[in-house]
Design brief:
Helix content is about 65%, strand content about 10%. It is α/β, with parallel strands linked by helices.
Length: about 575
Protein backbone atom coordinates (compact mmCIF):
# COMPACT_ATOMS: atom_id res chain seq x y z
CA UNK A 1 0.00 0.00 0.00
CA UNK A 2 2.71 2.51 1.00
CA UNK A 3 4.69 1.63 -2.12
CA UNK A 4 1.62 2.22 -4.29
CA UNK A 5 0.95 5.62 -2.75
CA UNK A 6 4.64 6.54 -2.64
CA UNK A 7 4.88 6.36 -6.43
CA UNK A 8 2.64 9.42 -6.66
CA UNK A 9 5.15 11.66 -4.85
CA UNK A 10 7.41 11.53 -7.94
CA UNK A 11 7.37 15.18 -9.19
CA UNK A 12 7.55 16.50 -5.63
CA UNK A 13 10.49 14.54 -4.22
CA UNK A 14 12.58 17.71 -4.02
CA UNK A 15 9.92 19.50 -1.94
CA UNK A 16 9.45 16.38 0.20
CA UNK A 17 13.18 16.40 1.02
CA UNK A 18 13.58 20.15 1.49
CA UNK A 19 10.65 20.41 3.91
CA UNK A 20 12.16 18.24 6.68
CA UNK A 21 15.58 19.85 6.07
CA UNK A 22 14.14 23.28 6.79
CA UNK A 23 12.25 21.87 9.77
CA UNK A 24 15.53 20.53 11.21
CA UNK A 25 17.15 23.93 10.70
CA UNK A 26 14.22 25.66 12.42
CA UNK A 27 14.43 23.30 15.41
CA UNK A 28 18.20 23.77 15.67
CA UNK A 29 17.73 27.51 15.90
CA UNK A 30 15.00 27.12 18.52
CA UNK A 31 17.18 24.83 20.65
CA UNK A 32 20.06 27.33 20.70
CA UNK A 33 17.91 30.20 21.99
CA UNK A 34 17.34 28.75 25.54
CA UNK A 35 21.12 28.31 25.93
CA UNK A 36 21.63 31.96 24.99
CA UNK A 37 18.93 33.01 27.44
CA UNK A 38 20.71 31.06 30.18
CA UNK A 39 23.98 32.74 29.20
CA UNK A 40 22.36 36.20 29.37
CA UNK A 41 21.02 35.49 32.88
CA UNK A 42 24.09 33.74 34.32
CA UNK A 43 26.85 35.74 32.63
CA UNK A 44 25.11 38.99 31.88
CA UNK A 45 22.36 39.88 34.33
CA UNK A 46 23.88 38.32 37.46
CA UNK A 47 27.38 39.67 36.75
CA UNK A 48 26.21 43.03 35.36
CA UNK A 49 28.01 42.47 32.03
CA UNK A 50 25.98 44.70 29.67
CA UNK A 51 28.16 44.03 26.61
CA UNK A 52 27.56 40.29 26.98
CA UNK A 53 23.81 40.91 27.11
CA UNK A 54 23.97 43.01 23.91
CA UNK A 55 26.13 40.48 22.12
CA UNK A 56 23.88 37.54 23.04
CA UNK A 57 20.82 39.63 22.14
CA UNK A 58 22.16 40.28 18.62
CA UNK A 59 22.96 36.59 18.18
CA UNK A 60 19.46 35.67 19.34
CA UNK A 61 17.89 38.03 16.77
CA UNK A 62 20.00 36.52 13.98
CA UNK A 63 19.19 32.98 15.05
CA UNK A 64 15.48 33.83 15.40
CA UNK A 65 15.52 35.30 11.84
CA UNK A 66 17.16 32.13 10.49
CA UNK A 67 14.55 30.06 12.32
CA UNK A 68 11.75 32.20 10.90
CA UNK A 69 13.13 31.83 7.36
CA UNK A 70 13.45 28.07 7.81
CA UNK A 71 9.86 27.85 9.09
CA UNK A 72 8.51 29.85 6.14
CA UNK A 73 10.41 27.79 3.59
CA UNK A 74 9.37 24.57 5.29
CA UNK A 75 5.74 25.68 5.08
CA UNK A 76 6.09 26.61 1.42
CA UNK A 77 7.73 23.36 0.32
CA UNK A 78 5.50 21.26 2.61
CA UNK A 79 2.37 22.76 1.07
CA UNK A 80 3.68 22.14 -2.45
CA UNK A 81 4.62 18.56 -1.64
CA UNK A 82 1.31 17.66 0.01
CA UNK A 83 -0.89 19.46 -2.55
CA UNK A 84 1.12 17.90 -5.40
CA UNK A 85 0.87 14.47 -3.81
CA UNK A 86 -2.91 14.87 -3.56
CA UNK A 87 -3.11 16.04 -7.19
CA UNK A 88 -1.14 13.02 -8.38
CA UNK A 89 -3.28 10.64 -6.33
CA UNK A 90 -6.48 12.01 -7.85
CA UNK A 91 -5.01 11.95 -11.34
CA UNK A 92 -3.69 8.40 -10.93
CA UNK A 93 -7.04 7.16 -9.62
CA UNK A 94 -8.95 8.90 -12.39
CA UNK A 95 -6.59 7.53 -15.07
CA UNK A 96 -6.88 4.02 -13.67
CA UNK A 97 -10.67 4.25 -13.47
CA UNK A 98 -10.70 5.10 -17.18
CA UNK A 99 -9.09 1.72 -17.91
CA UNK A 100 -11.63 -0.21 -15.83
CA UNK A 101 -13.95 -2.67 -17.48
CA UNK A 102 -17.57 -2.79 -16.39
CA UNK A 103 -16.59 -5.74 -14.19
CA UNK A 104 -14.07 -3.53 -12.35
CA UNK A 105 -16.51 -0.65 -12.00
CA UNK A 106 -19.10 -3.02 -10.55
CA UNK A 107 -16.76 -3.55 -7.58
CA UNK A 108 -16.87 0.14 -6.60
CA UNK A 109 -19.98 2.26 -6.24
CA UNK A 110 -19.99 5.65 -7.95
CA UNK A 111 -20.43 7.35 -4.57
CA UNK A 112 -17.52 5.30 -3.19
CA UNK A 113 -15.21 6.41 -5.99
CA UNK A 114 -16.20 10.06 -5.47
CA UNK A 115 -15.48 9.78 -1.74
CA UNK A 116 -12.07 8.23 -2.41
CA UNK A 117 -11.10 11.00 -4.83
CA UNK A 118 -12.25 13.79 -2.50
CA UNK A 119 -12.48 13.08 1.24
CA UNK A 120 -9.93 10.25 1.30
CA UNK A 121 -7.36 12.16 -0.77
CA UNK A 122 -7.81 15.24 1.43
CA UNK A 123 -7.09 13.11 4.51
CA UNK A 124 -3.91 11.79 2.90
CA UNK A 125 -2.88 15.31 1.88
CA UNK A 126 -3.29 16.62 5.43
CA UNK A 127 -1.50 13.62 6.92
CA UNK A 128 1.42 13.93 4.48
CA UNK A 129 1.89 17.61 5.25
CA UNK A 130 1.77 16.89 8.99
CA UNK A 131 4.38 14.12 8.59
CA UNK A 132 6.74 16.36 6.61
CA UNK A 133 6.40 19.35 8.89
CA UNK A 134 4.88 18.68 12.28
CA UNK A 135 6.09 15.10 12.72
CA UNK A 136 9.71 15.78 11.66
CA UNK A 137 9.81 19.00 13.62
CA UNK A 138 8.36 17.41 16.75
CA UNK A 139 10.66 14.38 16.64
CA UNK A 140 13.82 16.45 16.18
CA UNK A 141 12.68 18.99 18.76
CA UNK A 142 11.87 16.23 21.25
CA UNK A 143 15.19 14.40 20.82
CA UNK A 144 17.35 17.55 20.91
CA UNK A 145 15.45 19.07 23.86
CA UNK A 146 15.70 15.82 25.81
CA UNK A 147 19.45 15.60 25.16
CA UNK A 148 19.97 19.22 26.18
CA UNK A 149 17.91 18.69 29.33
CA UNK A 150 20.02 15.67 30.33
CA UNK A 151 23.21 17.66 29.69
CA UNK A 152 22.00 20.41 32.06
CA UNK A 153 20.47 18.20 34.78
CA UNK A 154 19.92 14.44 34.46
CA UNK A 155 17.89 14.52 37.68
CA UNK A 156 15.28 16.98 36.35
CA UNK A 157 15.35 15.49 32.84
CA UNK A 158 14.23 12.17 34.35
CA UNK A 159 10.87 13.83 35.06
CA UNK A 160 10.40 14.34 31.32
CA UNK A 161 11.42 10.76 30.59
CA UNK A 162 8.79 9.33 32.95
CA UNK A 163 6.13 11.63 31.43
CA UNK A 164 7.08 10.50 27.91
CA UNK A 165 6.80 6.81 28.82
CA UNK A 166 3.37 7.34 30.41
CA UNK A 167 2.09 9.31 27.41
CA UNK A 168 3.41 6.69 24.97
CA UNK A 169 1.49 3.98 26.84
CA UNK A 170 -1.72 6.03 26.77
CA UNK A 171 -1.33 6.86 23.07
CA UNK A 172 -0.57 3.24 22.20
CA UNK A 173 -3.82 2.21 23.91
CA UNK A 174 -5.97 4.90 22.27
CA UNK A 175 -4.89 4.58 18.63
CA UNK A 176 -6.03 0.97 17.94
CA UNK A 177 -9.45 1.71 19.47
CA UNK A 178 -9.89 4.87 17.40
CA UNK A 179 -8.62 3.09 14.26
CA UNK A 180 -11.42 0.53 14.54
CA UNK A 181 -14.04 3.26 14.27
CA UNK A 182 -12.24 5.27 11.59
CA UNK A 183 -12.19 2.14 9.39
CA UNK A 184 -15.97 2.06 9.63
CA UNK A 185 -16.47 5.78 8.98
CA UNK A 186 -15.65 5.90 5.26
CA UNK A 187 -18.14 3.25 4.10
CA UNK A 188 -20.68 5.46 5.90
CA UNK A 189 -19.41 8.41 3.85
CA UNK A 190 -20.09 6.32 0.73
CA UNK A 191 -23.67 5.70 1.87
CA UNK A 192 -24.19 9.41 2.53
CA UNK A 193 -22.81 10.45 -0.86
CA UNK A 194 -24.88 7.79 -2.59
CA UNK A 195 -28.01 9.13 -0.94
CA UNK A 196 -27.25 12.67 -2.10
CA UNK A 197 -26.25 11.58 -5.61
CA UNK A 198 -29.38 9.52 -6.20
CA UNK A 199 -31.64 12.22 -4.80
CA UNK A 200 -30.17 15.00 -6.95
CA UNK A 201 -29.93 12.98 -10.17
CA UNK A 202 -33.48 11.68 -9.79
CA UNK A 203 -35.02 14.83 -8.28
CA UNK A 204 -37.82 14.90 -10.87
CA UNK A 205 -38.88 11.38 -9.98
CA UNK A 206 -38.68 12.18 -6.26
CA UNK A 207 -40.98 15.17 -6.71
CA UNK A 208 -43.30 13.37 -9.10
CA UNK A 209 -43.93 10.64 -6.52
CA UNK A 210 -43.87 13.08 -3.55
CA UNK A 211 -41.05 11.14 -1.90
CA UNK A 212 -39.24 14.10 -0.34
CA UNK A 213 -40.00 12.91 3.19
CA UNK A 214 -38.72 9.43 2.41
CA UNK A 215 -35.50 10.79 0.87
CA UNK A 216 -35.06 13.20 3.78
CA UNK A 217 -35.39 10.31 6.22
CA UNK A 218 -32.97 8.21 4.18
CA UNK A 219 -30.41 11.02 4.18
CA UNK A 220 -30.86 11.59 7.91
CA UNK A 221 -30.30 7.91 8.58
CA UNK A 222 -27.03 7.91 6.61
CA UNK A 223 -25.96 11.21 8.20
CA UNK A 224 -26.72 10.00 11.73
CA UNK A 225 -24.81 6.76 11.15
CA UNK A 226 -21.77 8.80 10.06
CA UNK A 227 -22.23 11.13 13.05
CA UNK A 228 -22.39 8.20 15.46
CA UNK A 229 -19.17 6.65 14.16
CA UNK A 230 -17.31 9.96 14.32
CA UNK A 231 -18.52 10.63 17.85
CA UNK A 232 -17.21 7.25 19.00
CA UNK A 233 -13.84 7.79 17.30
CA UNK A 234 -13.47 11.41 18.36
CA UNK A 235 -14.50 10.60 21.95
CA UNK A 236 -11.47 8.36 22.22
CA UNK A 237 -9.17 10.83 20.46
CA UNK A 238 -10.48 13.71 22.63
CA UNK A 239 -9.00 12.06 25.72
CA UNK A 240 -5.59 12.95 24.33
CA UNK A 241 -6.01 16.65 25.16
CA UNK A 242 -6.81 16.44 28.90
CA UNK A 243 -4.19 13.74 29.46
CA UNK A 244 -1.57 15.82 27.68
CA UNK A 245 -2.44 19.01 29.59
CA UNK A 246 -2.38 17.17 32.92
CA UNK A 247 1.05 15.76 32.12
CA UNK A 248 2.41 19.17 31.05
CA UNK A 249 1.31 20.98 34.20
CA UNK A 250 2.43 18.10 36.43
CA UNK A 251 5.91 18.27 34.86
CA UNK A 252 6.08 22.06 35.31
CA UNK A 253 5.10 21.74 39.00
CA UNK A 254 7.64 18.96 39.65
CA UNK A 255 10.44 20.80 37.86
CA UNK A 256 9.59 24.05 39.71
CA UNK A 257 9.64 22.29 43.11
CA UNK A 258 12.73 20.15 42.55
CA UNK A 259 14.54 22.86 40.54
CA UNK A 260 13.95 25.54 43.18
CA UNK A 261 15.50 23.31 45.84
CA UNK A 262 18.49 22.65 43.57
CA UNK A 263 18.99 26.41 42.95
CA UNK A 264 18.82 27.11 46.68
CA UNK A 265 21.37 24.33 47.31
CA UNK A 266 23.58 25.74 44.50
CA UNK A 267 23.20 22.49 42.54
CA UNK A 268 21.73 24.38 39.60
CA UNK A 269 22.14 27.92 38.21
CA UNK A 270 19.09 30.15 37.76
CA UNK A 271 19.70 30.43 34.01
CA UNK A 272 19.95 26.66 33.70
CA UNK A 273 16.58 26.29 35.46
CA UNK A 274 15.07 28.77 32.97
CA UNK A 275 16.56 26.72 30.11
CA UNK A 276 15.07 23.56 31.57
CA UNK A 277 11.64 25.20 31.65
CA UNK A 278 12.04 26.12 27.97
CA UNK A 279 13.15 22.57 27.09
CA UNK A 280 10.29 21.20 29.19
CA UNK A 281 7.78 23.11 27.10
CA UNK A 282 9.56 22.04 23.91
CA UNK A 283 9.43 18.38 24.90
CA UNK A 284 5.82 18.41 26.00
CA UNK A 285 4.61 20.50 23.06
CA UNK A 286 6.47 18.12 20.75
CA UNK A 287 4.62 15.24 22.36
CA UNK A 288 1.32 17.01 21.92
CA UNK A 289 2.04 17.63 18.22
CA UNK A 290 3.17 14.02 17.78
CA UNK A 291 -0.07 12.80 19.30
CA UNK A 292 -1.99 14.97 16.79
CA UNK A 293 0.09 13.51 13.97
CA UNK A 294 -0.63 9.98 15.15
CA UNK A 295 -4.36 10.74 15.27
CA UNK A 296 -4.24 12.11 11.71
CA UNK A 297 -2.21 9.13 10.53
CA UNK A 298 -4.74 6.80 12.19
CA UNK A 299 -7.54 8.53 10.30
CA UNK A 300 -5.63 8.60 7.02
CA UNK A 301 -4.63 4.92 7.14
CA UNK A 302 -8.24 3.97 6.46
CA UNK A 303 -8.25 6.43 3.55
CA UNK A 304 -4.91 5.13 2.28
CA UNK A 305 -6.25 1.58 2.07
CA UNK A 306 -9.27 2.72 0.06
CA UNK A 307 -7.15 4.77 -2.35
CA UNK A 308 -4.68 1.90 -2.80
CA UNK A 309 -7.58 -0.41 -3.67
CA UNK A 310 -8.44 1.78 -6.66
CA UNK A 311 -4.82 2.29 -7.74
CA UNK A 312 -3.99 -1.42 -7.48
CA UNK A 313 -7.12 -2.57 -9.26
CA UNK A 314 -6.19 -4.01 -12.64
CA UNK A 315 -8.62 -4.00 -15.52
CA UNK A 316 -10.06 -7.38 -16.40
CA UNK A 317 -9.75 -6.31 -20.04
CA UNK A 318 -6.24 -5.88 -21.39
CA UNK A 319 -4.64 -5.50 -24.79
CA UNK A 320 -2.71 -8.48 -26.18
CA UNK A 321 1.05 -8.13 -26.65
CA UNK A 322 0.79 -7.44 -30.38
CA UNK A 323 -2.76 -6.18 -30.93
CA UNK A 324 -4.43 -5.96 -34.32
CA UNK A 325 -4.87 -2.29 -35.21
CA UNK A 326 -7.35 -2.58 -38.10
CA UNK A 327 -10.76 -4.18 -38.52
CA UNK A 328 -11.40 -5.33 -42.08
CA UNK A 329 -15.22 -5.45 -42.04
CA UNK A 330 -18.28 -5.55 -39.81
CA UNK A 331 -18.95 -9.27 -39.82
CA UNK A 332 -19.74 -10.79 -36.42
CA UNK A 333 -19.46 -14.39 -35.29
CA UNK A 334 -20.38 -15.95 -31.93
CA UNK A 335 -18.91 -19.40 -31.38
CA UNK A 336 -20.34 -21.34 -28.41
CA UNK A 337 -20.31 -18.22 -26.24
CA UNK A 338 -20.99 -18.64 -22.52
CA UNK A 339 -20.89 -15.65 -20.19
CA UNK A 340 -21.19 -15.07 -16.45
CA UNK A 341 -21.00 -11.73 -14.64
CA UNK A 342 -19.61 -13.50 -11.59
CA UNK A 343 -17.50 -16.65 -11.43
CA UNK A 344 -19.63 -17.97 -8.55
CA UNK A 345 -22.94 -17.59 -10.42
CA UNK A 346 -24.95 -20.79 -10.57
CA UNK A 347 -26.23 -20.27 -14.10
CA UNK A 348 -24.62 -18.35 -17.01
CA UNK A 349 -26.24 -15.24 -18.46
CA UNK A 350 -25.49 -16.29 -22.05
CA UNK A 351 -25.70 -19.99 -22.78
CA UNK A 352 -23.87 -21.54 -25.72
CA UNK A 353 -24.58 -18.79 -28.28
CA UNK A 354 -23.50 -19.61 -31.84
CA UNK A 355 -24.45 -17.23 -34.67
CA UNK A 356 -22.98 -15.59 -37.79
CA UNK A 357 -23.81 -12.06 -38.98
CA UNK A 358 -22.63 -10.81 -42.36
CA UNK A 359 -20.98 -7.42 -42.79
CA UNK A 360 -23.52 -4.71 -43.66
CA UNK A 361 -26.53 -6.67 -42.43
CA UNK A 362 -29.23 -5.09 -40.32
CA UNK A 363 -29.97 -7.43 -37.43
CA UNK A 364 -32.87 -6.95 -35.04
CA UNK A 365 -32.80 -8.40 -31.54
CA UNK A 366 -36.03 -8.82 -29.62
CA UNK A 367 -37.03 -10.64 -26.47
CA UNK A 368 -38.51 -10.19 -23.05
CA UNK A 369 -36.99 -8.19 -20.22
CA UNK A 370 -34.01 -10.07 -18.77
CA UNK A 371 -33.47 -12.19 -21.87
CA UNK A 372 -29.83 -10.90 -22.09
CA UNK A 373 -30.21 -8.82 -25.27
CA UNK A 374 -27.90 -6.06 -23.98
CA UNK A 375 -25.37 -8.57 -22.64
CA UNK A 376 -25.25 -10.17 -26.11
CA UNK A 377 -24.41 -6.75 -27.65
CA UNK A 378 -21.82 -5.99 -24.96
CA UNK A 379 -19.78 -8.96 -26.09
CA UNK A 380 -19.27 -7.38 -29.52
CA UNK A 381 -17.56 -4.20 -28.27
CA UNK A 382 -15.80 -6.20 -25.55
CA UNK A 383 -17.43 -4.43 -22.65
CA UNK A 384 -17.03 -7.80 -20.96
CA UNK A 385 -14.96 -10.81 -21.98
CA UNK A 386 -16.69 -14.10 -22.67
CA UNK A 387 -16.40 -16.82 -20.04
CA UNK A 388 -16.22 -19.55 -22.70
CA UNK A 389 -16.12 -19.58 -26.49
CA UNK A 390 -15.22 -16.59 -28.65
CA UNK A 391 -16.68 -13.51 -30.32
CA UNK A 392 -15.19 -12.55 -33.67
CA UNK A 393 -15.41 -9.24 -35.52
CA UNK A 394 -13.99 -9.02 -39.03
CA UNK A 395 -13.00 -12.68 -38.74
CA UNK A 396 -10.74 -12.19 -35.69
CA UNK A 397 -11.36 -12.74 -31.99
CA UNK A 398 -12.17 -9.40 -30.34
CA UNK A 399 -9.50 -10.19 -27.71
CA UNK A 400 -6.86 -9.94 -30.45
CA UNK A 401 -7.70 -6.31 -31.26
CA UNK A 402 -6.41 -3.14 -29.68
CA UNK A 403 -9.28 -2.08 -27.40
CA UNK A 404 -9.38 1.49 -28.67
CA UNK A 405 -9.39 0.31 -32.28
CA UNK A 406 -12.23 -2.12 -31.62
CA UNK A 407 -14.40 0.39 -29.80
CA UNK A 408 -13.78 3.08 -32.41
CA UNK A 409 -15.23 0.73 -35.03
CA UNK A 410 -18.14 -0.44 -32.86
CA UNK A 411 -20.40 2.50 -32.00
CA UNK A 412 -22.96 1.88 -29.27
CA UNK A 413 -26.02 3.92 -28.37
CA UNK A 414 -26.92 2.63 -24.92
CA UNK A 415 -30.30 2.21 -23.23
CA UNK A 416 -29.39 4.99 -20.81
CA UNK A 417 -28.52 7.86 -23.11
CA UNK A 418 -25.94 10.20 -21.60
CA UNK A 419 -25.23 13.75 -22.68
CA UNK A 420 -22.54 15.84 -21.04
CA UNK A 421 -22.64 19.48 -20.01
CA UNK A 422 -21.64 21.58 -23.02
CA UNK A 423 -23.13 22.62 -26.36
CA UNK A 424 -24.87 20.21 -28.72
CA UNK A 425 -21.91 20.48 -31.08
CA UNK A 426 -19.48 19.58 -28.30
CA UNK A 427 -21.60 16.54 -27.45
CA UNK A 428 -21.78 15.47 -31.09
CA UNK A 429 -18.00 15.72 -31.44
CA UNK A 430 -17.59 12.95 -28.89
CA UNK A 431 -18.14 10.79 -31.96
CA UNK A 432 -15.44 12.57 -33.94
CA UNK A 433 -13.55 15.42 -32.29
CA UNK A 434 -12.48 16.76 -35.71
CA UNK A 435 -15.95 16.69 -37.28
CA UNK A 436 -16.98 19.89 -39.07
CA UNK A 437 -20.30 21.56 -38.31
CA UNK A 438 -21.61 20.38 -41.70
CA UNK A 439 -20.74 16.76 -40.83
CA UNK A 440 -22.50 17.13 -37.48
CA UNK A 441 -25.60 18.55 -39.18
CA UNK A 442 -25.61 15.68 -41.70
CA UNK A 443 -25.42 13.09 -38.90
CA UNK A 444 -28.28 14.85 -37.09
CA UNK A 445 -30.38 14.77 -40.24
CA UNK A 446 -29.85 11.00 -40.45
CA UNK A 447 -30.90 10.69 -36.81
CA UNK A 448 -33.93 13.01 -37.35
CA UNK A 449 -32.46 15.45 -34.83
CA UNK A 450 -31.75 18.42 -37.10
CA UNK A 451 -35.32 19.80 -37.09
CA UNK A 452 -35.66 20.19 -33.34
CA UNK A 453 -32.06 21.43 -32.92
CA UNK A 454 -32.65 24.16 -35.51
CA UNK A 455 -35.77 25.20 -33.59
CA UNK A 456 -33.67 26.09 -30.53
CA UNK A 457 -32.71 29.81 -30.32
CA UNK A 458 -29.00 28.93 -30.29
CA UNK A 459 -29.27 25.97 -32.67
CA UNK A 460 -26.26 23.70 -32.46
CA UNK A 461 -24.69 26.03 -29.88
CA UNK A 462 -27.51 25.31 -27.43
CA UNK A 463 -26.03 24.48 -24.04
CA UNK A 464 -26.92 21.04 -22.70
CA UNK A 465 -27.19 20.79 -18.92
CA UNK A 466 -25.46 17.94 -17.10
CA UNK A 467 -27.19 14.68 -17.99
CA UNK A 468 -29.20 16.39 -20.75
CA UNK A 469 -31.92 17.50 -18.36
CA UNK A 470 -33.02 20.40 -20.60
CA UNK A 471 -33.98 18.18 -23.57
CA UNK A 472 -36.63 15.49 -23.81
CA UNK A 473 -35.94 11.77 -23.79
CA UNK A 474 -36.59 11.44 -27.53
CA UNK A 475 -34.39 14.42 -28.35
CA UNK A 476 -31.61 13.04 -26.18
CA UNK A 477 -31.82 9.66 -27.97
CA UNK A 478 -31.57 11.23 -31.42
CA UNK A 479 -28.55 13.37 -30.45
CA UNK A 480 -26.85 10.22 -29.11
CA UNK A 481 -27.59 8.36 -32.37
CA UNK A 482 -26.10 11.23 -34.38
CA UNK A 483 -23.04 11.20 -32.12
CA UNK A 484 -22.55 7.48 -32.80
CA UNK A 485 -22.95 7.98 -36.58
CA UNK A 486 -20.13 10.54 -36.60
CA UNK A 487 -17.72 7.73 -35.69
CA UNK A 488 -18.46 6.16 -39.09
CA UNK A 489 -18.29 2.74 -37.46
CA UNK A 490 -18.20 -0.64 -39.11
CA UNK A 491 -20.75 -1.84 -36.55
CA UNK A 492 -23.54 0.26 -35.04
CA UNK A 493 -25.42 -1.06 -32.02
CA UNK A 494 -28.69 0.63 -31.05
CA UNK A 495 -29.68 -0.71 -27.65
CA UNK A 496 -33.37 0.20 -27.37
CA UNK A 497 -32.24 3.69 -28.33
CA UNK A 498 -35.44 4.73 -30.16
CA UNK A 499 -37.85 3.78 -27.39
CA UNK A 500 -38.64 7.44 -26.63
CA UNK A 501 -39.41 8.45 -30.23
CA UNK A 502 -42.65 7.84 -32.12
CA UNK A 503 -42.90 5.07 -34.68
CA UNK A 504 -42.89 7.48 -37.65
CA UNK A 505 -39.58 9.02 -36.56
CA UNK A 506 -38.24 5.56 -35.78
CA UNK A 507 -39.08 4.48 -39.33
CA UNK A 508 -37.34 7.54 -40.83
CA UNK A 509 -34.20 6.83 -38.79
CA UNK A 510 -34.12 3.21 -39.97
CA UNK A 511 -34.66 4.30 -43.59
CA UNK A 512 -31.75 6.76 -43.31
CA UNK A 513 -29.55 3.97 -41.98
CA UNK A 514 -30.39 1.70 -44.93
CA UNK A 515 -29.69 4.41 -47.49
CA UNK A 516 -26.73 6.27 -45.94
CA UNK A 517 -24.68 3.58 -44.21
CA UNK A 518 -25.42 0.38 -46.16
CA UNK A 519 -21.99 -1.13 -45.44
CA UNK A 520 -22.26 -0.69 -41.68
CA UNK A 521 -23.50 -3.69 -39.74
CA UNK A 522 -26.48 -2.51 -37.69
CA UNK A 523 -27.65 -4.27 -34.53
CA UNK A 524 -31.03 -2.95 -33.38
CA UNK A 525 -32.18 -4.06 -29.93
CA UNK A 526 -35.82 -3.16 -29.39
CA UNK A 527 -39.03 -3.94 -27.56
CA UNK A 528 -41.21 -2.96 -30.53
CA UNK A 529 -41.76 -5.27 -33.46
CA UNK A 530 -42.04 -2.20 -35.72
CA UNK A 531 -38.41 -1.30 -34.95
CA UNK A 532 -37.01 -4.64 -36.17
CA UNK A 533 -39.47 -6.12 -38.67
CA UNK A 534 -37.67 -4.49 -41.63
CA UNK A 535 -34.29 -5.89 -40.53
CA UNK A 536 -32.54 -8.41 -42.79
CA UNK A 537 -32.75 -10.97 -40.00
CA UNK A 538 -34.06 -10.97 -36.44
CA UNK A 539 -32.71 -12.71 -33.34
CA UNK A 540 -35.28 -13.81 -30.77
CA UNK A 541 -33.71 -14.20 -27.34
CA UNK A 542 -35.13 -16.04 -24.36
CA UNK A 543 -33.36 -16.59 -21.03
CA UNK A 544 -29.84 -16.11 -22.44
CA UNK A 545 -30.32 -18.34 -25.48
CA UNK A 546 -31.25 -17.76 -29.12
CA UNK A 547 -34.77 -19.08 -29.53
CA UNK A 548 -35.08 -18.07 -33.17
CA UNK A 549 -33.13 -16.43 -35.99
CA UNK A 550 -34.55 -15.45 -39.36
CA UNK A 551 -36.56 -12.90 -41.30
CA UNK A 552 -39.79 -11.37 -40.03
CA UNK A 553 -41.88 -13.71 -42.17
CA UNK A 554 -39.88 -16.80 -41.20
CA UNK A 555 -40.18 -16.07 -37.49
CA UNK A 556 -43.93 -15.38 -37.74
CA UNK A 557 -44.33 -18.79 -39.27
CA UNK A 558 -41.95 -20.75 -37.05
CA UNK A 559 -41.28 -18.99 -33.73
CA UNK A 560 -43.97 -18.92 -31.06
CA UNK A 561 -42.31 -16.21 -28.91
CA UNK A 562 -41.96 -13.83 -31.85
CA UNK A 563 -45.51 -14.52 -33.00
CA UNK A 564 -46.88 -13.82 -29.50
CA UNK A 565 -44.98 -10.50 -29.30
CA UNK A 566 -46.19 -9.52 -32.77
CA UNK A 567 -49.82 -10.31 -32.05
CA UNK A 568 -49.76 -8.54 -28.68
CA UNK A 569 -48.33 -5.36 -30.23
CA UNK A 570 -50.29 -5.23 -33.49
CA UNK A 571 -53.66 -6.58 -32.36
CA UNK A 572 -56.66 -4.38 -31.59
CA UNK A 573 -56.39 -0.75 -32.65
CA UNK A 574 -52.82 -0.99 -33.92
CA UNK A 575 -49.53 0.37 -32.66
CA UNK A 576 -50.33 2.32 -29.50
CA UNK A 577 -47.65 4.98 -29.96
CA UNK A 578 -48.34 5.87 -33.60
CA UNK A 579 -47.98 9.60 -33.98
CA UNK A 580 -46.81 9.97 -30.41
CA UNK A 581 -45.03 12.91 -28.89
CA UNK A 582 -41.42 13.65 -29.83
Amino acid sequence: MLKTLGKQIKDFKKDSILTPCFMVLEVAMEMIIPLMMASIIDHGVETGNISHIYKMGIYMVIIAAIGLFAGLMGGKHGSRASAGFARNLRRAMYDNIQTFSFANIDKFSTAGLVTRMTTDVTNIQNAYQMILRMCIRSLISFVVAMCMAFLISPKLASVYLVAVILLAIVLGTMIPKAMKYFNQVFPKYDDLNESVQENVSAIRVVKAFVREDYERERFSKASNALYGMFVKAESIVALNGPIMQTTIYSCILLISWIGAKMVVNSELATGELMSLFAYCMNILMSLMMLSMVFVMITLSMASAKRIAEVLEEESTLTNPENPIMEITDGSISFEHVVFNYHATAEEPVLKDITIDIRSGETIGIIGGTGSSKTTFANMISRIYDVTEGSVKVGGRDVREYDLETLRNEVAVVLQKNVLFSGTILENLRWGDENASKEQCIHACKLACADDFIQSFPDGYDTYIEQGGTNVSGGQKQRICIARALLKKPKILILDDSTSAVDTATDARIRKAFREEIPNTTKIIIAQRISSVEQADRIIVMEDGTIDGFGTHEELLASNEIYRDIYESQTGGSGDFDEGGDN
